[in-house]
Specification:
Helix content is 40%, strand content 30%. It has four helices and four strands; from the N terminus they run H-H-H-H-E-E-E-E. Strands 1-2-3-4 form a four-stranded antiparallel sheet.
Length: 146
């Protein structure tokens, strides 16, 4: 009886592990679509779409004004290529190649180094960035009350 229980427990563990791996693979196509939509929105300067695809928006730590300020540097995205996406549980990663231009370059563009981005799966969708880091009072440099 004990052998049967141990054997069944082992089978259940393997099945759960395989289901988790299959779930990651099911999320990768959705991650790729979200990464492409995000970068296309950046390319066409669709700040509204980019804003609502940010993890900071989900967590209510990013405002539209801050988003506009972040997206108004001297460079403009000309083109992008999604090189790779990986999903592992609720965490994702994308590697992007980008081409930028600037008014200072008289219409010429240049390739920037590849970027590795973090994506987070929450509320049944992928969002750009990771969750806010929670500060640990034991490691914080701020003075602690007594």
């Amino acid at each position: 009886m004990v052998r049967v229980t141990v054997w069944l427990s082992g089978i259940l563990f393997v099945m759960l592990a395989l289901t988790a791996v299959a779930g990651d693979k099911d999320r990768e196509p959705l991650l790729k679509k979200r990464v492409e939509a995000y970068w296309e929105a950046l390319r066409i300067n669709d700040i509204h779409t980019v804003y609502y695809m940010e993890m900071g928006t989900v967590e209510k730590r990013l405002t539209p004004d801050v988003m506009r300020a972040l997206l108004s540097p001297p460079y403009r995205l000309v083109d992008y290529k999604v090189k790779e996406v990986k999903a592992s549980g609720d965490e994702g990663e994308a590697i992007i190649e980008i081409e930028l231009t600037s008014s200072d370059l008289a219409g010429k563009s240049f390739s920037a180094p590849s970027q590795k981005e973090r994506w987070t799966f929450i509320n049944d969708n992928w969002y750009h960035g990771g969750p806010a880091e929670k500060s640990d009072p034991k490691t914080s440099s701020a003075p602690q009350g007594k």
